[in-house]
Amino acid sequence: MLTSFAILTDGLVYAAYLFIVAIGLTLIFGVMKILNVAHGSFYAFGAYGAATAVGIYANADWPAALGFLFMLVLAMTIGLVMGIILERGLLRQVYGKDEVITVLVTYATFLILEDVIVLLWGPQSYAAYQPMVSAGNIEIGGLVLSNYDILLVAIAAALALLAYWSLKFTRYGWLLTTVIFDRETAAAFGVNVTLIYTVTFIIGAVLGALGGAVMAPKIAVTLGIGVEVIVLAFAVVAIGGMGSIEGALVGALIVGICRAAAVHLVPQLELFVIYGVMALVLVVRPYGLFVRAQPRKI
Amino acid sequence: MSAILAVRNLEKTFGSLVAARDITVSVPAEQTVGVIGANGAGKTTFINMITGHLTPSKGSIWFEDKEITGQPSREITRLGISRSFQVAQVFPSLTVFENMCIAAAIARRRGGIFGNIVTPVHSPAATAEAEATIELFQIGRYREIIASALPQGVRKLLDIGMAVVGWPRLLLLDEPTSGISIEEKFDLMKVAMSALRSRKITVLFVEHDMEIVTRFADRVLAFYDGTVIADGTPTQTLSNPQVQELISGVRLKTSVKKPGNA
Amino acid sequence: MSGRGQLVGGLMFLFATAAAPLLPDWIVSLATVALANALVVLGLVVLWRAGLVSFGQAIYYCIGAYAVALTARWTGFRDAFALVVIGGVAAGLVAALIGFLLARYREIFFAMLSLALSMILYGVLVKTESLGSTDGFSVATPTFLGFAPHRDTLGLSLYWLTLGVDAVCAVLISAYFRSVAGALAAPIRDNEIRVEFLGVSVASVVHAKVVISGILGGLGGALAALTIGHVDPNMSYWTTSGGFVFVTILAGASSVAAAFVGSLAYEAVRSFAFDLMPQLWQMTLGSVLLLTILFLPNGLGSLVSRVKRREEVKS
Predict the structure, then answer these.
(1) What is the mean pLDDT of residues B134-160?
(2) What is the reported pTM?
(3) If contacts are CB pairs under 8 Å, which of residues 67-86 in chain B contact chain A?
(4) How many domains does chain C contain in total?
(5) Across-strand partners of B146?
(6) Count of the separate structural domains present in chain A
């Protein structure tokens, strides 16, 4: 009983982390049809930025909540700047080219950015555990949970609600939906697709960086964190369907719970489970759970 | 052989939608049959059943006295039935010659699991067939042009040529002149039809242009609501009052009053 | 390959064979690994021509390598020729199996599913203690038809073996490209539906390509395992696959030779970058990739065809 509860809570926390990271990726793909490998870089930069922020406020002795906010804001700003630079400088060159070519461009960018991290922060690891520690723990039903983890789940839930509300009730959300559905027709109706692309990419970058920032207190901020995240995020997005936000949510939950189950019950299968689930879903639903195949007319 | 193609009591339903109902037609060899009817009348369903892309719900299809009902489309292509497309389906990154070559090589490939691997694509036989078909359809001057750069009419002729390079005995043409300008329709059909006639291919073609149908078909089938409502020579079918009411329209004879002081 | 291409290829092969004993050991070793990797790239070229990109080709590389290592470890059998064949066959069998799944997909989904499968293997290997987990384990020194070479000549022996396997594969794949199955790559990429309507099962042609690329990947992995002397789960990691894709981009898919030239160029650049600035070689690699994609979208191979075309126009 305790194990099931542990699986559930662990699963939810992991799902929250996956969702925050994956939502930016699926958004960018849905709108721009670009699978952005450099999303891992946004995450990494967010994490490193958060570590720097924690370093700053911990030494200056700010109150925990303010420090946390500062950490988030700094990370999101980094994401914003990176998003603008990448979109303007690089992606514009490859719009309209083959999907796979664009993926390779983002892969190359990712490689470059991995080393930019070394240039900026050096090869050593950083710790940013202060927010986690100051949040404290809570005991529920025999399990000790970190308040920070609960906060993580809350942030993910808030993000999901925000995404849902924006898409359904704001003008930008409607425009986004039309572009996701059929870019050409949207453009023919006068939608400023270029602007939508830029804004979407920046939002995706900010969300990626946010993911890195909120996870920083839980992990060792070191080289290579971007790599892991990217593959996981892809798996989540593939399960849910590219471009589908509800898909990212469901995908994150599925992967989160399955992984937690594996970790608690059969630890050897941890890595296997995530990709196994992805392969399984793709067998049954080739385009993910929430996306239908587009038939070709002749 | 009595008829090269015979369908008996053919029927196709999609759930509650009856797309084809009790169709019985017999086509003798080398006949050119025009198929007319409004969109949604069942023409494409009919063609798709013959080419094996749809399995009939009821009824049977016979090709050269052998039943082919329900056979997969790959098998039917092998047996000698081919089709061309309303929107020309070619390989845009290859030249006209390469397009024709690959079609010819596929048609001549050896059977078995490794058939594709052991057959060379530019064998003398395949290239000769490709050249001959290109000449037959009079698109020789476009031989080295990439298919994506071809004018629409040439692309259509290439499409038909590729369907024919393997010497099928029955060819189904899906709206051969759709997307072609009025001035060019007749020329296109003249070239295509003479090419097909010279290879003694039986042709079924779907058309919306009644003049094309009148000029090039030996026989016309009129479809409405999933059934054949008329079957005869072009004149017979097109003067059928039901056909006139439902499909082709009536020729109005009227005098035009000159504007002015009338 | 045209007649002239065959001649050039043959000459290069002879040159490569003869030049090796004159070169320092580290160059021979580097070249051997590059030539082994070139086989994996050749497999990717076969798929690339049909519009398919595999982000998980490393799975076959890894299977080939582990097949060799495990056969040597469990049976004591160490003949290099046999081991390489075993590696190729093992990978080919796995490719045949997963090909049934992969052949249904195209583009991004083909890429991602192949990625997932390679990561599954990685996950399994990492968690398997008996296979050394993340450390992997070493590969026994091979023998060559009973002849156990001296340590000094082992490197050259492996080099010549790799060169030989490369040559055989080059000839076979060139023949494949001239066959209907090989020539169907562009039509499948352009208009699959038409290919089906011409009477060809696209799924089975794609399946065959997956198997061919798998066998090539396995051969490459087997040769690499013998040369490096060590196998580990990283051989199935997604960055390893990424490296192979990178070379394919660099080389372009225009010819068989491109895979070999590209792979050698990549090893050279990688060593050079690593020597020059060991901290920043990923950046160098990424920049080269970026520049290639933006300015030479058909890879280095396109440079060759541009030169050829200019010659034809002049003459």
Answers:
(1) 94
(2) 0.85
(3) 85-86
(4) 1
(5) B95
(6) 1
